[in-house]
Design goal:
about 325 residues; alpha+beta; 7-stranded antiparallel beta sheet; about 20% helix; about 40% strand
Amino acid sequence: MCSLNQEIAEAKNRIRMLDAAYLEELKIQSALSEPGTKRRAEDRKTWMDLLQSLKVDSAKLAEFEKADAKRAEATFRALEKGFKIVPDAVLAGAVDRVRIDDHLDATLVLDEGEPYRHWLTYPLPYEHNGKVERGYVGEGGKQEGSCGSTPSSVYDALVKPRSYSVGAGAGWDDQHTVSVKCWFWYYISGAFIKRAGTVFVWPYFDIHGGYWVRSNDGYFTSKEASIRLSMTTSVWRPEHTSAAGYTWNVLNKSDDNIDEDGRVDFTGWNNKAKGESQVTIGEPLTVQVVIELRSHVEGSGSHALLDFQNGEGNYIRIPFIRVWVP
């Protein structure tokens, strides 16, 4: 039987390998989208030829687009007190700082007639990382993204992510996308897996922030705006390098004509974000929870913003996970 230090060292190495594999997977996914982006840029000439054949007054279109963009910027200025812009702070390299404390003992909860459930308030090791990806077609616009701050303490898995896209030009000639992924790693000691079967893992979410999605589509403009906030939980067994994840779309809004701002506030569990895996007795597990913010716009005056950076009251926190072996 290995010592606590040996177990932590092995878990640290495993998390480092899984983290590197996940970053490589994101790189491959990004490369797969490049041909489509290139084709989108090449379509510009087709649209320009169509407008010219229809004898559309491009000067009037440009005048309308400029006025629409000004209206959108005025709205943003009115909202920006709640939207704080910070430099990119992707959490690369964080896997070198493994959290080690004395909380390997989980609280064992037994409800009458129910299976045993482990509440791992401080699962070990606990790590984090992140990546920001930007894509665009056309000139101008904005693609801003950040994972924000690092966890404030060993007991607080907290980040302050932000994703913001702003369009420029006609929708058929413009596209701006920002994808921000921030993720946490949790280790479940084999000491908690006392029977073989299916293990279920639920993160506890504490989500507070704001959003704005705005697009004013019209004849010959083809505008669009969309935002999506999602949480994905995956469970890895020692012999596996990948696992299917369960995704919960916390917020998903899109339209060609939309102007909506509001808050995102949720505290508690969500069954759509659970992780699941088969286990044997005494088998250690690694859990990954991915937070993704995606903003996408097409056309000037289109804005898509998800913001969890402003003030101490806005953040995304996953303080602990629940493990259940029926």
